[in-house]
Amino acid sequence: LDGLSDEELVCVQESMDYLKLGSIAVAWDLAWSSQMYQRSVDDMVATKRRNYGSHFVTGNMPIAKSLVRVGRNNVGEAYVGLYQRDSFDNNKPNEGYTIQAERHGQGGIYRRTCFDGQVPSPFTTYPSFASDEVVGIQIKDREIHFEKNGVDLGVAFPLDETCYFLYPVAMVYRAGSFALVT
User: Domain total for the chain?
Assistant: First the structure.
């Protein structure tokens, strides 16, 4: 599948789903991620070992739903979401949708990083996350939904009309890890 465009990857995945052939395995793609991350043999776990700034890790293909287990020591400093990879830059705010775990388990925020480069908005509170919980984000009916351990937290945002081919993304400020859940 190397060399296929985002649009071609989506078409292949939709065809495989229609034919009930299973799905293309999503994995972390360190070629598009910060060099601060190390990956597991199967590319399902990305680990940042040093407490040095914020760094992103991105997935290898566009998807409509992502489930990520937040590793120990991340909560309070972790973001999970879907981003457009064609504009991705590990050194600046990126275009997409994320959910942030709040420090000390006091709840947190949804964040939409605007596609026109403006200040991220809107902010909505949600239940707090703990280590080893599964954060979900998916596109349903042109809306972004977040999940906590399989429970839909409701509509977070309408999907931006210019938004296509979203990749899973995670970020941690401190040392920590993210595991893709299949």
Answer: 1
